[in-house]
Design goal:
The chain is an alpha/beta fold and 242 residues long. The protein has 2 domains: 101 residues; 130 residues, Response regulator (Rossmann fold, 3-Layer(aba) Sandwich), CATH 3.40.50. The protein is 62% helix and 10% strand. The protein contains 7 helices and 5 strands, in the order ααβαβαβαβαβα. The chain has a 5-stranded parallel beta sheet, sandwiched between helices. Strand 4, helix 6 and strand 5 form a beta-alpha-beta unit. Helix 1 runs antiparallel to helix 3 and helix 4 runs parallel beside helix 5. The radius of gyration is 27 Å and the shape is elongated.
């Protein structure tokens, strides 16, 4: 076999090797993209499932408090719900959380600016616990609870929260009067207020919005809508603070 034939065969082999390398790199890139897409879909599913599950658990607690004759059945629903929450949390820890670098666990910024304070003025503890479960999926939120209007005003002045969730039918002061006092106090007049109430009267809704409420949700409210409004309000406050 001539020298020219050897050279040609070597050149052909080199081209084939380069083509194989290119194909391998493309296959690796495709696999990485597919893996990332699959991971993203799993995390999105876990998040959506958690929101729906939180709704089921929260309202089962409310019904359990109001329907003592079926407490064992409601308790079984709550137990099953919490077991599902644990499974979702395990899934999120294994798939959705980024690995810690250098073998060290990721820590949360302990500075005060990392916490976003939300004050819920609500006389019904079960309703507050529902809100607590809904917001536990949001990072760095410090949730405060006031069971009366006067207590809510005191906490609002002392802590100046980033957001206030306000019930209307409070035992001492009506929520509309609480909103008026919040708007008339310099330190709290800019705090966004979302009303959460079972009062579906269009007149009441219009009055509260005109009085300075940012939004008005009717109980039982849509969980996704509340999360959207909370995220939107907190983001707006963070932009003002920046």
């Amino acid at each position: 076999m001539s020298e020219a034939v050897h050279v040609r065969d070597l050149e052909n082999a080199h081209r084939e090797i380069e083509q194989l390398r290119k194909e391998v790199r493309q296959a690796i890139a495709t696999a990485a993209t597919t893996r990332e897409e699959a991971q993203q879909k799993i995390c999105e599913f876990a998040r959506e499932f958690r929101i729906s599950l939180t709704t089921v658990i929260g309202f089962s607690d409310i019904l359990s408090a109001n329907d003592k004759s079926h407490s064992p059945e409601w308790s079984q629903i709550a137990i099953a719900g919490h077991e599902l929450v644990e499974l979702i949390e395990k899934l999120e820890r294994s798939v959705c959380l980024p690995p810690a670098s250098n073998g060290q666990a990721k820590t949360t910024d302990p500075s005060p600016t990392s916490a976003r304070t939300v004050l819920h003025i609500e006389d019904n503890e079960t309703n507050f616990r529902l809100t607590e479960r809904i917001l536990e999926d949001r990072a760095n939120i410090e949730l405060l609870w006031a069971a009366t209007g006067s207590q809510g005003l005191e906490l609002a002045i002392n802590h100046v929260p980033a957001l206030i969730l306000l019930d209307l039918n409070l035992p001492d002061i009506h929520g509309s009067d609480v909103l008026v006092q919040l708007r008339n106090t310099p330190s709290t007049q800019k705090i966004p207020v979302i009303v959460l109430s079972s009062d579906a009267s269009p007149t009441r809704i219009e009055r509260m919005l005109k009085a300075g409420a940012r939004d008005y949700l009717i109980k039982p409210f849509d969980i996704k809508r509340l999360l959207f409004l909370v995220d939107e309000a907190l983001y707006s406050r963070s932009q003002i603070a920046a």
